[in-house]
Amino acid sequence: NLQESESENKLDGETASDSESKSEFGGSPAVPTSDDTPEVLNRALSNLSSRWKNWWVRGILTLAMITFFFIIIYLGPMVLMTIVMCVQIKCFHEIITIGYNVYHSYDLPWFRTLSWYFLLCVNYFFYGETVTDYFFTLVQREEPLRILSKYHRFISFALYLTGFCMFVLSLVKKHYRLQFYMFGWTHVTLLIVVTQSHLIIHNLFEGMIWFIVPISCVICNDIMAYMFGFFFGRTPLIKLSPKKTWEGFIGGFFATVLFGLLLSYVMSGYRCFTCPVEFNNDTNSFTVDCEPSELFQLQEYNIPLVLQSVVGWKTVQMYPFQIHSIALSTFASLIGPFGGFFASGFKRAFKIKDFANTIPGHGGIMDRFDCQYLMATFVNVYIASFIRGPNPSKLIQQFLTLRPDQQLHIFNTLKAHLVDKGMLGGLEDA
Amino acid sequence: EVDLEERLSELDLRNDSDLPDVPPPTDSTPEILKRALSGLSARWKNWWIRGILTLAMISVFFLIIYLGSFMLMLLVLSIQVKCYHEIITIGYRVYHSYDLPWFRSLSWYFLLCVNYFFYGETVADYFATFVQRREQLQFLIRYHRFISFALYLTGFCMFVLSLVKKHYRLQFYMFAWTHVTLLITVTQSHLVIQNLFEGMIWFLVPISSVICNDITAYIFGFFFGRTPLIKLSPKKTWEGFIGGFFSTVVFGFIFSYFLAQHQYFVCPVEYNSETNRFVTECEPSELFQIKKYSVPPLLQAVLGWETVNMYPFQMHSIALSTFASLIGPFGGFFASGFKRAFKIKDFADTIPGHGGIMDRFDCQYLMATFVHVYITSFIRGPNPSKLLKQLLILQPEQQLSVYKTLKSHLVEKGILQPSLKG
């Protein structure tokens, strides 16, 4: 019977085990699950039944991760950047390892070296682009850095090309298809993991609040949806994740929006969260000190009539940022879960329970970050579209590299525009 | 053991004799040609077909250049869509996924999204004056990234909702296949268009160098070929490779000399909002003005001249031709490896005697990116019109402060005379 169903199903590109399994994963998983829980915890919980033990392990680790999150926020932007970098590398490693397991390609010549090399190249490219902007004065001072930044794209491209040519030269007759698969796998993983992490760092430099609020909203949505689902869950949400329910989804949505509003209110009061991160040339360290923008200054808002009867106030004092936080929380609750469904589908497609076993009770780093996927891009696009325009100092830098005739042309166009708008009088003013 | 077999079979990694479902190669040669060549033996017939089609393609190329930039843009776009279609079709065949729900609509949808994003980024800069006049376009431009992202997200969510229990792995494969294909074909084609806007010479010289390298490497290999170059493509030889390199450099050098004389090729393409056309008229930059160069003593003995009149652009053309001859072939090897991996002879049968569009363009891959990176690194700084566009989006107070900074800079440099009247 197994043979029959196997041959039938070969036409669909799936295996017999796909159809026969009722549980999430049929057949042996590609990555054997090992019990990663530290000995300490094991002994402390040895008396409880295995179900409660699992709960406790998950709960303790959740608290541990949240505490860790607070600690690194306290330690500042530099540490945060480093942590983002480490998470990125670990996620890349987890996904590539799954690729190895799926394709049994541990012995492919060169392949592991090439994956890490491409990771290095792409990171070099992105860090070069960001670092040049934020560390402009530092870069201009040091001669080698200046040359590296001036020809940055060319150097990055040359590095990438080297990797590409190495790949072509490493193609071995028996393993062509495998090698192309792994090449594709690596590039898609880079696209997902590395671009997201660099967008997170961009958001971070905009102000730590743009980093903390989105991430917290996603985490909150995860937890709240779980709780609402636990207590009130009845109608299944999507076949892909049978444990998710509509009640959890909707309850999580409202809870997250509320949480976002409150968290933003608390954080907007502190400069260290709302100011853009800048690099101070004199002290050679990061500083977060500025005049808070109008987004972070209390304003009086009229409550719409509908809510007035409910809440009992006529006006309320809020930060404009809190309105934006509603948009962020909404995205985190409504679209963020699609990132989770994507990861669930991926795990089912490749028959793995978790991405890895890094965090006891939770799985791999990627398991925790799957809903964050897309959030970083959304925040970045949101900021670029609605919050701030282009960076004026960056524009001035670019202007200074143009030819004199181009500079004159732009200057005159800008002048005409300002005169049009009435910002400049007909006479030249100082 | 059973588990391993099962796993290998589900991934299409069965032994080499297992071919995917490739339709037999169809003979798409037009009837006319067939009748004209019916007298010759099969080998010569193949040669003639290839030769005629080569000439036909080159003629079409010249015709479109004559017709202008807009037609060239359309041509590039059509080629991009056709290459994308060819690669996606191969994916369908490899994975037997014609019947996957939604998948074909989703692939085309993603192609549309990514093109929309890129066209918005490039085209909007060049059409700044056109756009300023129309309100709706201004809105689209201002929130362009947000709109593109929203469109992409819709596609992403549709993909997630379309996941069907039996076909998870297949669907993920096709999703990844689509994205890698987009990365390869769409980004390249937009870089080609950006190069084109820099000046048609930046479009013509690289493409011609690659084509020349193809042809001359073939000819040198045919007459002198002895040592095989790489196992991946057994027909390539070192003699062909090196001969092709030198011929291409010489060809690029001479071709640039002729093109650099005409404003039509040398000037950046601009959009004239009054006549609603593309114009290529300008004061040629110093790259395209003849200069006297001293011939290095080594070559003086060979050539017998002491100085030579050249365009500076010809020096750059040496860099472009070198890349086309040395690295361009790696794009070809990549495509050969790909065809062997998926056991196909050609990407498609669009061009009789040559295969698919992708077969002709595999060496162009990477060339467009190289030219673009080369231009931005060595030729010109940031794009002035893009800079202007960003300046105009700033808040009025920011604009005013930028204006003051710029003015003081220009006065300092003596480019602007300080005066009391505006």
From TrEMBL, chain A:
**Segments of this protein annotated with the region Disordered:** 1-38
EC code(s) of this entry = 2.7.7.41
As one GO molecular function, the record gives: phosphatidate cytidylyltransferase activity
Query: Which membrane topology term applies here?
Result: Multi-pass membrane protein
A single GO BP:
CDP-diacylglycerol biosynthetic process
Q: Where is this chain's protein located in or outside the cell?
A: Membrane
The UniProt entry's GO CC annotations, sorted and at most eight, read: endoplasmic reticulum membrane
What reaction(s) does this enzyme catalyze?
a 1,2-diacyl-sn-glycero-3-phosphate + CTP + H(+) = a CDP-1,2-diacyl-sn-glycerol + diphosphate; 1,2-di-(9Z,12Z-octadecadienoyl)-sn-glycero-3-phosphate + CTP + H(+) = 1,2-di-(9Z,12Z-octadecadienoyl)-sn-glycero-3-cytidine-5'-diphosphate + diphosphate; 1-octadecanoyl-2-(4Z,7Z,10Z,13Z,16Z,19Z-docosahexaenoyl)-sn-glycero-3-phosphate + CTP + H(+) = 1-octadecanoyl-2-(4Z,7Z,10Z,13Z,16Z,19Z-docosahexaenoyl)-sn-glycero-3-cytidine-5'-diphosphate + diphosphate; 1-octadecanoyl-2-(9Z,12Z-octadecadienoyl)-sn-glycero-3-phosphate + CTP + H(+) = 1-octadecanoyl-2-(9Z,12Z-octadecadienoyl)-sn-glycero-3-cytidine-5'-diphosphate + diphosphate
Q: Which UniProt keywords apply?
A: Lipid biosynthesis, Lipid metabolism, Membrane, Nucleotidyltransferase, Phospholipid biosynthesis, Phospholipid metabolism, Transferase, Transmembrane, Transmembrane helix
Please give the pathway this protein is involved in. Answer: Phospholipid metabolism; CDP-diacylglycerol biosynthesis; CDP-diacylglycerol from sn-glycerol 3-phosphate: step 3/3; Lipid metabolism
Q: Which family does it belong to?
A: Belongs to the CDS family.
Q: Per its record, how is this protein called by name?
A: Phosphatidate cytidylyltransferase
Q: What is the lineage of its organism?
A: Eukaryota, Metazoa, Chordata, Craniata, Vertebrata
TrEMBL record, chain B:
Q: Write out the transmembrane intervals.
A: 47-79, 100-119, 139-161, 173-193, 199-225, 237-260, 313-335
Q: What does the entry list under GO cellular component? A: endoplasmic reticulum membrane
Q: Per the record, where are the segments of Basic and acidic residues compositional bias?
A: 1-17
Q: Does this entry carry the keyword Metal-binding?
A: no
What does the entry give for GO biological process?
A: CDP-diacylglycerol biosynthetic process
Source organism superkingdom: Eukaryota
Q: Which gene encodes it?
A: Cds1
Segments of this protein annotated with the region Disordered: 1-28
EC assignment: the record states 2.7.7.41
What protein name applies here? Phosphatidate cytidylyltransferase
One GO MF term on file is:
phosphatidate cytidylyltransferase activity
